[in-house]
Amino acid sequence: MTTLRRIARLSVLTGVVLLWGATGPARAAEPLKVGFVYVSPVGDAGWTFQHDQGRKELEKALNGQVVTKFVENVPEGVDAERVIRELANGGHQLIFTTSFGYMNPTIKVAPQFPKTVFMHATGYKQAKNVGIYNARFYEGRYLTGVIAGRMTKANVAGYVAAFPIPEVLQGINAFTRGMLSVNPKAQLKVIWVSSWFDPGREREAAMTLISQGADIVTHHTDSTAVVQAAEEKGVYVFGYHSDMSKYGPKAHLTATTHHWGQFYIKTAREVLAGSWKPGSVWGGIKDGFIKLAPLNPAIPADVKEQVAQLEKDITSGKLHPFAGPVKDQEGKVRVAAGQTMTDDQMQKMDFYVEGVQGRLPQQ
Amino acid sequence: MIDLLVPLLAGTLAAATPVIFAALGELVAERSGVLNLGVEGMMLVGAMAAFAGATGSGSLWLGVLLGGLAGAGLAVIFCVLALNLLANQVACGLALTIFGVGLSAFVGRAYVSLTLRGLGPVTVPGLSQIPVVGPIVFRQGALVYLAILTYGAVSWFLYRTKAGLILRAVGESPQAAHAIGHPVLRIRYLATMSGGFLAGVGGAYLAVAYTPMWVEQMTAGRGWIALALVVFATWRPGRVLLGAYLFGGVTILQFHAQGLGINLPNELLSSLPYLATILVLVLISRNYQTIRLNAPASLGLPFHASD
């Protein structure tokens, strides 16, 4: 730690010396230091991996104008606060904190560094120098639902989910609506594993779904166990976060993948230009935040065409996964025909739509 | 009904396997009087070594062996600290878990992206065709069978061999065993290392057979369940086996119920192994006699030959 701090102090000193001796252009040549805080190791697939891909894109696009640094595997809580503060102390003028649990630490550290810009992913608290950003994962889920609806023979799909929070429910419901839009007979079974990360339980849940007749499964958890289980059992699967085709070359139809690079580049440009303002960004397919991974050749051409068309419709705003009428399981109308669910309603989602089997666990 | 039962029971056998290995290993160590809380760490190091060995050599069985040896290696560190230097066993065990988590994560960094074709199921010819029982019992991974064989071996060793009797004597009264000439330290070393080996094999099962991959903390608390299970089983191998199937079965049952649209209290069922363990602890701690009847008398206590 002390060496780190020493280096940090040294770099601040060099910065000061440079500022002292240099005129305008030299100051502009001083690169913007951008820090990233990750909740897990970067690894090879998953939530943090996608953020790190974004960081690499940023470095490549603004080569020379930015230098980046990341700290991985930072527990949410007191440690996060220390890491964020150290990054700010080390002269990072733009810091991305990429997990929900970093919300309070970010909000706590931010006032102490009023000249630093903080960007927090998936949270809801903003401040003068704290902006928030998130992705419309459900748009990708809707499209994978359409593929599932067209390709299922058993008319049963399975979903391995972590915890019944709005973000996960958006995915389940969008998937179901996509599936039902092309196949009204299809149903979705959901198994909650009560853990974001437990490869064993994720596998057991997937095996259960498959044994109960699901011939397409997907997951909203953090490991690749579900993809591997599907490959082993010879059923189809959709990956999440990253392209997971490597873990199930035959089974993996596509994946809802996250892409933060363009947003990171845009934010860094704004900070460099001094035009950054706090706000909330919730980007979808249109903004390049969400993409489908390359489609498996097993998907028939007409399904591919339909998905491409729907993707365009989502981009143009013609199609919204939660356009009314949206009915819940009891048949109660949650969004009337002709209306669209608001962002606020989506962020508070706490019900299953029609077509999902079973009951939502009480929170 | 049968259609539902088959995947449920088959899933239970597979889910319980890593815990059976680890818990039987811990049982052997605790029967010799050594309380090693480092099971989770030894499992993780075993999983990591097994995955590295399997991807490096191409032989999954070599991987499993390496996993066991890595677990035993970690147990040696514990032995040096707790048995030679007489450090507090509880503290050493906890430290061993923290160390194992960190070490496996550090060494495993290079292996996170690799894929592995895992150990597939072994179909026993003929027997697997028996209706109901066949698909449950005779189409499992080889390590699932090995776990049951290990149970047999541990029971036989503890209750039917002289060496097992001596090991249990050391666990009851190391002073007495020492006085009649048994090498207490060496016996405890061997017992703890065997425990480490089995914990490593339990981790290896996860990394090369059950979920063939390496990711940090992939055991996700199974080491702690194994520890709880030993107490739940009141230090008897047969009850370890039963308990592991019971707790594994509860998870799988709960998943099946969800898939069928029946909601069971998810969180409560997940905590069942720990609740049951506390209950057993309360029951056997009622008085001095029930403790003496069930737990190894010198469990967790340091022993020095000068005592």
Amino- and carboxy-terminal Cα gap of chain A: 41 Å
| Secondary structure tally: strands of chain B | 2
CATH class of chain B: Mainly Alpha
Number of domains of chain A: 2
Specify which chain pair forms the largest interface: A-B, 39 and 37 residues
Tell me which CATH architecture of chain B applies here. Orthogonal Bundle
Strand order of the largest sheet of chain A: 2-1-3-4-5-11
The structural class of chain A is alpha/beta
Class based on secondary structure composition and strand pairing of chain B? mainly alpha
Mean pLDDT of chain B: 91
**So what's the overall shape of chain A?**
globular
Shape call of chain B: globular
Order of helices and strands of chain B: HHHHEHEHHHHHHHHH
The fraction of residues in strands of chain A falls at 15-25%
**Helix and strand sequence of chain A:** HHEHEHEHEEHEHEHEHEEHEEHEEH
Low-pLDDT ranges of chain B = none
Proportion of β residues of chain B?
under 5%
Question: Would you kindly provide a brief summary of this structure?
Answer:
Chain A contains 12 helices and 14 strands. With 363 residues, chain A is an alpha/beta fold. The N and C termini of chain B lie far apart (61 Å).
Structure explained in plain terms:
The complex is a heterodimer of chains A (363) and B (307). Chain A is 41% helix and 19% strand. With 363 residues, chain A is α/β, with parallel strands linked by helices. Chain A folds into two domains: 2-136 and 260-283, Rossmann fold; 137-257 and 291-347, Response regulator (Rossmann fold, 3-Layer(aba) Sandwich). Chain A has a six-stranded parallel β-sheet, sandwiched between helices. In chain A, strands 7-6-8-9-10-12 form a six-stranded mixed β-sheet, with helices on both faces. Chain A has a two-stranded antiparallel sheet with strand order 13-14. In chain A, a hairpin with a 5-residue loop joins β13 and β14. In chain A, α6 (137-151) packs parallel to α7. The longest helix of chain A has 20 residues, at 2-21. Chain A is globular, with a radius of gyration of 22 Å. Residues 1-27 of chain A have low confidence and may be disordered. In chain B, strands 1-2 form a two-stranded antiparallel sheet. Chain B contains 14 helices and two strands. Chain B is mainly α. The model of chain B has no long low-confidence stretch (mean pLDDT 91). Chain B is globular, with a radius of gyration of 19 Å. In chain B, α6 packs across α7. In chain B, 48% of the residues are buried. Chain B has a single domain (2-294), classed as ABC transporter involved in vitamin B12 uptake, BtuC (Orthogonal Bundle), CATH 1.10.3470. Chain B has helices at residues 2-31, 39-57, 60-84, 89-107, 133-137, 142-160, 162-172, 174-179, 184-210, 222-232, 237-259, 266-270, 272-284, 288-294, and strands at residues 121-123, 139-141.
